[in-house]
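Limitations

Structures in this collection are predictions, not experimental determinations, and the ligand pose is part of the prediction. Treat each record accordingly. The example that follows, with zinc ion as the small molecule, is included so readers can see exactly what is and is not provided: the inputs are given verbatim, and the output is the predicted complex.
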Amino acid sequence: MPSRNGQVLVLNLDYQPINICGTRRAVKLLYLGKAEILENRELQLRTVTTSMPYPSVIKLARLIRRPRPQVKLSRKAILARDGYKCQYCGKRNVKMTIDHVKPRRLGGSFTWENLVCACHACNAKKGDRSSSEAHLKLLRKPKKPSFIPYISYAIVDRGLGDEEWRKYVPQKLYG
Ligand SMILES: [Zn+2]
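Predicted complex:
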């Protein structure tokens, strides 16, 4: 199934996913010989003179050097670490928020070990209580990740990419 926005997953020469771009940009890279197509869609892209398959995954012809993503604590990083999955009920594909495992009123801090991705329902259920008071159990103990990939399964799970992307994106958020 094609992704909603006709987006294309861009892999580095070493097959590391490094970017997501639009079809137009991908076609330009392919046309200039700066990338090759690895996966395409069934739809054909027609131009005046030719037709080619719509790209879904492309690989760059040259290695792009990029620093490993810095693991800085932020709301976004917590969501990425937890794969946009509620750490209490395991739900995905709903609006997520950040939950303080130990609430602020009990001295809970803004740290990797005390913050998790939670759905609004669990967050509301938990309220201002500790997880044990609210009878909510964490799926896993939160910790600081050593590495967060640019692009992971979370992207596909959120419906932002094609199913074929799974072959190329890391499943694990912990390095
Ligand atoms: Zn939940």
